[in-house]
Write a structure and sequence with these properties.
With about 350 residues, this protein is α/β, with parallel strands linked by helices. The chain has 14 helices and eleven strands. An eight-stranded parallel beta sheet has the order 1-11-10-9-8-7-6-2. A three-stranded antiparallel beta sheet has the order 3-4-5. α5 crosses α7, α9 packs parallel to α10 and α13 (about 290-300) packs across α14. The longest helix is centred in the middle third of the chain and has 22 residues, at about 160-180.
Length: about 350
């Protein structure tokens, strides 16, 4: 069975013979723990990979995303980064005043994909391939306006806010369509909606304004036979069910910000939990025994003939031995085809 088949069986709840694996390797880990990264790649290869973002003409970017200094992305958003290995923050808004909307245009260059090269990558890989870009309407709003101003906008709700959101959304519909016409297996979405304790916005407002956007992206993906993967940090229990209803197949979230037992009661079998193991505390400060206990809890609360992916992030502060312990535990506890955990 190829990794692509393994992931598909997991997403469908069809008793995969093992749990699929994926490590999110931040450049920090590659710089600070190269030997550990090599061991991970050699021993626990990823079943899920990202297609390269290949374009017929290079998008207008400047600097390096994960390097100290200034990085300007394809939309023109300026990120200031104080250290190597992670992405920076936007402090200077591209749309500082609503009058800037008159001259603002999204980056057409990212729609001109090198389809032949992307399809060749997919053909050469036995892994399950995600699109090489992420669609992120809320975060794009934050990048264009800064996080602080975007939250003020969402509170005050001027008419210009919805004009900008519509512009972002219409462009992302075209980007999803472009990637859905390639041979990737899934479209990738990404918006961080949670604080440590709950949503950043009123759940009713989120349902009215943002859920329809994700549903439209998912509709395009499904029309082309693609799955939909999404990442969202923080405590997002309130919207997981709606994300599933909108068409999200697999959700990467900070499970340990939430109540795992409640997540299991509400959503087990309705959506695939694409990781993760607690990177705030357990991966950075926990013992190997605590790592194993965390993995076992995820399995016992969320596994449902599949619908769990063994994902974790190797980023700033993580102890390499704890990353190894995540996958060692998954290797040990998953009982194999046709067997469910005891609850």
């Amino acid at each position: 069975m190829t990794s692509r088949e393994l992931v598909r069986r997991t997403l469908e709840g069809e008793d995969p013979p093992r749990v699929p694996r994926q490590t999110w390797l931040l450049p920090w880990a590659e710089s600070n723990h190269p030997q550990a990264v090599e061991r991970l790649r050699r021993t626990w290869s990823d079943d899920i990979v990202n297609a390269p973002a290949l374009y017929c003409s290079p998008p207008p970017v400047s600097g390096e995303r994960y390097r100290r200094g200034t990085y300007i992305d394809e939309w023109g958003c300026r990120f200031s980064n104080p250290q190597d290995g992670i992405i920076g923050l936007v402090h200077d808004p591209l749309i500082a005043d609503w009058s800037d909307l008159e001259t603002f245009t999204p980056p057409e260059a990212v729609l001109d994909l090198d389809v032949e090269a992307i399809n060749a990558f997919c053909s050469d890989s036995e892994a399950f391939v995600l699109a090489g870009t992420v669609v992120r309407p809320f975060e794009r709003l934050c990048f264009l306006r800064t996080m602080e101003q975007a939250l003020i906008d969402l509170h005050e709700q001027p008419a210009e806010l919805f004009t900008l959101l519509e512009t972002i959304h219409r462009f992302y519909l075209r980007e999803v369509e472009a990637w859905a016409r390639t041979d990737v297996d899934a479209i990738a979405l990404m918006d961080d909606w949670g604080t440590q304790a709950g949503l950043m916005v009123n759940p009713a407002f989120w349902s009215e304004v943002f859920r329809p956007l994700y549903a439209e992206y998912a509709g395009i993906a499904r029309a082309h036979g693609k799955k939909v993967f999404m990442h969202s940090d923080g405590h997002i229990t309130a919207i997981i069910g709606e994300l599933a209803e909108a068409g999200v197949d697999a959700l990467n979230s900070q499970l340990f910000c939430m109540d795992l037992e409640e997540l299991g009661r509400l959503y087990r079998g309705r959506i695939t939990f694409w990781g993760e193991i607690d990177r705030q505390h357990i991966l950075a400060y926990g013992t190997r025994e605590e790592v194993a206990a965390a993995v076992e809890k995820v399995y016992h609360e969320l596994w449902d003939s599949g619908r769990v992916i063994a994902q974790c992030e190797f980023g700033p502060g993580a102890i390499p031995e704890n990353i190894f312990a995540v996958f060692e535990t998954w290797d040990r506890i998953h009982p194999g085809e046709g067997t469910q955990p005891t609850r």
